[in-house]
């Protein structure tokens, strides 16, 4: 960067609605527009997932950030085009859509902004907190409707991913005339892509259902998105997928997806707070039971209190694991804390279960007759047994104890791919975590327009 250059960070959030739109698509458009001003991008566009338990989120609670250096003479022009596109692509007439955009000019990110971002990923943050911080760091924010979108927009700017695990996602977009229609992709090519790029891409398919999950179902502009460990593997994956409709453009994002960034270790259980995602240890206090719709509920205790844990039917493998737990097993549970209601207590909605130890399951039976091998009958407490066939009494025999085999084994169990949250770290990623503070060397081609016709 030359001395004539300065740095700008633009945060975006909540421009979409359940009926369409996509903040990542707006980001893709801005990337193309900013090339006119000869900006130098300092990082891939960041796709930052925030607390998945926020009750007013639209879908995945993702916010976006663009970081770049530029000639200060273009500042007004850059902000003008960014604001115009943000207004144009914000679904402000849709209920629950609260778009926000934040501009921040600084070569560094303040520590208090980084702390703010961490909080937005793990708990509830108020709009007042965001507004106070925006004023303090001399950023500029604009919003529509309730204005809640400035929280995510500011948080995206504060997430540098330094010394943290991160992943990438390559997102392709449809031409406008195809929005809202069924997506046309060779499904077999996606299964082949997953097989070829494993384990360096993840969550491409649901192996339990044999279903593709890289394509959204709604009317948004996305055709498909591939998540992986590096830009290079995503470019390889892109070339393996065979779309049967045009791709308007594609972009590679850097992200906290698949990193468990939302989970906080919490002890004791008595201090669990609703809307947070936690990691909690305990002993199974009540064996699993099935409630309507085939959900499995069990409870754990750490000596301070007892808390329900829920494995819902869509969690598949995780639900089966929960059903096999027994009183006395020790576990570490991962999931979102759901507040108590009139019909159920405070509950941890499970994403993962780590089985630490298994309680022995003992079956007690009357002993066999030494003569005829028939099961003896009890003569009463501490009075021994008798054989009805041989008519012999055995006052000194005791009940026999047998250890029953457990099909469950210690280890980590994760909810099925189809029900994993954006932030949930899948099994495929374990052992591939990143934690360095190295400079990000961007590949030459990380975004393209009309890459496939």
Q: In words, what does this structure look like?
A:
By secondary structure, this protein is α+β, with helices and mostly antiparallel strands. Among the domains are: 6-160, Alpha-Beta Plaits, CATH 3.30.70; 263-358 and 406-420, OB fold (Dihydrolipoamide Acetyltransferase, E2P); 361-404. It is 19% helix and 31% strand. It has helices at residues 23-34, 75-88, 111-122, 127-136, 149-158, 187-197, 231-240, 317-323; strands spanning 6-13, 40-41, 46-49, 62-70, 100-105, 140-143, 167-174, 201-202, 205-206, 211-212, 222-228, 247-255, 263-265, 277-291, 295-301, 306-311, 330-338, 347-357, 361-365, 377-378, 385-387, 392-394, 400-404, 411-414, 447-452. The strands form five sheets. Strands 1, 2, 3, 4, 5, 6, 7, 8, 11, 12 and 25 form an eleven-stranded mixed beta sheet that branches. α1 (23-34) runs antiparallel to α2 (75-88). The protein is elongated. The two termini are 36 Å apart. The model has no long low-confidence stretch (mean pLDDT 92).
